[in-house]
Amino acid sequence: MRVRKAIIPAAGLGVRFLPATKAQPKEMLPIVDTPTIQYIVEEAVASGIEDILIVTGRNKRAIEDHFDKSLELELQLGHKNKDELLGLVRDISEMVDIHYIRQKEPLGLGHAVYCARKFIGDEPFAVLLGDDVIKNKVPCLKQMINLYEEARYSVLGVQEVPPEHVNRYGMVEATTEREGVCRIYDLVEKPEVGQAPSTLAVMGRYILSPRIFDILAMTRPGAGGEIQLTDALRSLAKAEAIYGCLFEGKRYDVGDKLGYLKATVEFALERPDLAGEFRKYLKELITE
Q: CA 283, 285, 288 angle in degrees (round to 5)?
């Protein structure tokens, strides 16, 4: 069965970006002029996803408004003959069918995914985390879908990380199948440095079997008192195969202040309308 649906969990409080996120969703913080969540949606669409469910929480209405039509704005842009901006605004609301459900309590990523069980039904699906913006000519999720269509089992997006950073990620125990592909046997959520089973970390992209919902229904709260997706994946790995896709692409952790700044600078330097003056400014700033 083809991967047609995707879940984007977006119910987090964004505490790492307070006070900016006190009254606006962290997913709406822009990289230059585009909200971070739009990059995630665009990756899903470019990978062939047809329907997206965004799991939201309180004070997240701005996400829905962003992907909805804005009649007043479109009329104003049309009257002023700003056709390029008008097309940009319309494209956002027409790029894909987006649905919403609210996670009423902050019970963890596993619970957020479980909230989508009726939307997904009995078919494989993708999960894309909003803190991970991944840039590559072939989208990260598309690379994973290609592997899924070959293997027909769950696929996790993984990359190597420095040994001193393993306590920041879910780390996997795996064996190499071939270049770019591994078989995952176990996962550990943020192990202590020196205690990780490998240096392969899960990077916010998943293609999951619907069997995960039955496992999540029985998963008890783990670290932080939350229902952890990692715990459910450990159980799934004992029941059926899970593969890792060592995807190509540069990942930005935009949920981290430094990662967000790096993404902003690098994306701006790729913009024809900004790159020249911005590069000149950065050179002047460094030499002061």
A: 110
